[in-house]
Amino acid sequence: MIYLPFVDGLRALAIIAVVAYHAFPGVITGGFAGVDVFFVISGFLITSLVVTEISDGTFSLYRFFVRRARRLLPAAFACIVVVTLLSAFILLPDAFWYYGRSLLAFVGLFSNVFFYLTGGYFSAPALEKPLLHTWSLAVEDQFYLTWPLILMLASPFLSKRTILGLVLLSLGASLWFAEAKVSVDREFAFFMLPSRAWELLTGAALALVASEMKLGRAASEALSIAGIVAVLASFLLLSPHSNFPGLSAAPACFGTVAIIAGCMSQNVLLTRLLSYRPLVLVGLISYSLYLWHWPLIALASYRLERPLDAGEASLIVAISVAMAVFSWRWVEQPFRKSRRPADATSKNVATWSLSDGKFVVAALSCVAIMATLAGAIKGMKGFPNRYTADSRHVLSQLVAGNPVRMQCDGFENVFANDDVCNFGKKRDPGGSYELALFGDSMGDHWAPLVTKYAEDRNLAGRQVTNGGCALLFDVPIPAETEDKTAECASYQTEAKKFVELNPKLKIVVISGYWEKWLRLVNAAAARDANSADPAGSSKLNFDTALERTVRTFTDRGIKVVMIGQIPIYDPLPVRCIVGAIEDRRDAATCGKPKAEALKELKRSNAALLRVAAANPLVSVSVPSDFMCQEQRCSPVMDGVLLYKNGAHVNKFGAELLGRFIKFPELEEAPPVPPS
Which positions fall inside the Acyltransferase domain (predicted)? Predict the structure, then answer.
């Protein structure tokens, strides 16, 4: 296959966008679309190679997979060895345990499935996942486990035009699926092959028609310019909040096709620009740079317990480039080609290059080593014995949350799983609950506290929460995606139905991410008030919405306990806390400055207090009042780590803080039966 320097130049643009997006968030907001450019290039190059070899009668699946392994595995193995050593020193046991699991997924070629099941790409905890970027390698690997075989089996029986038609049909189906799935399950659409295959197939379709394309200079110039504009616009205009992938990924993908088609057909201006030697060199090291940059950014951020500033990010990028150059020259290149007997005395062949047979043995050995290492990290739970008993005790508290959240949180569980979600006294069959907990995930994290209260007061209690959805009746909850908006609407409906079907409710506890909901609800109300639509001012502001929600309960004689939002950390300073414990220092020094925390909570705390002051059946507890001392809000109290992550208390924290939560007196409170 003829080498196309401009393709490496295009790779350079893609890797620059990806690295810039990871290292300098907000500068190139859609830099993640660089991966889509890589997918198209990969589909084009690999399909071109396979189709050419099939046509020549020289294609072999064995040689194909050996070539892929030579291209990808040596650099990946070298990177994994270094990253694992760094992780062992930097990551705390829970994060190192997760790293071991992700390494096992990488070795098994299902990183994309693993990260889909365990967390998102665009969330803050992504900084705790040094191998998150391997999801895209898994997508490619899964594609190439089947695509060459399909081409090999189809070529003797189907014409190239028929194969092209089937490719276009599959491309359209995958794109349709991606667009449909992105509004229902964005993480699935992002990570999984069925919704990403169209991007690789776009490059494959181009490869099938490339040899027959006859474009004039004017058409080639126009096509290449349109393509580069589409790609660069994607990098600059997309953002983590875009409905991506799906049709929003189409400009980057079809733009890449336009660039390749235009630059192949004629020696246009963009062909010469993308073939500029420094740009080509960046493209040549792009795979190694992709491997190295993210783990270094993630580990540095984790070590500092905050996002990198511009200077730190620049240093990490510089180190990544240096590692990539070294990896490309001394790891990638020597293993790319098989060593033949005639090469034995050649100065142009690295002395450690191997024959195909020896390389396969070495590759399988490396895979076995990585799998064994990953299994050991996973099996030993991240090697917690690296730390003292006191630190291990605190770290064990970190991973303890509401033990029944999976079965009880969510609108679909409001009337399900009663045997698990009924806390305190068992409800009589067909009877009414007396106590209920409402809210989003910041309501859910108080479940251990409310459970203890129900047990102490011998009340039949029930969890009625939905992560990511506030309890604000009669208010459309603003959400990032349509499916989440619908989910929150369903939660409001089910929660109100729960109140109506439980006439003996005496007390409810409501909590949530109040500052977020106050900001979003008030912003939506302000937009509607300024709308030209006469009905535009129908939405309630936060105070009014909260007051009406509370009255839904108090009008029925139900007492309401509102719990304010806890101080939030981004991220939780766990390394600082463990370091303080190891050094016998006060862990409170790792906390948030009190003035900063109170400023962040000021508006929502004031709103809760206003609503409570106007209704005698409502009481409010403001966590910052008892979590903050003179100067700082401590994440540790009485030797107990209060948090599970930066925004949620853990089981032990919820139970400990229960002593400060104000619960109203209940008339004729039933006595606790003797144990």
Answer: 5-328
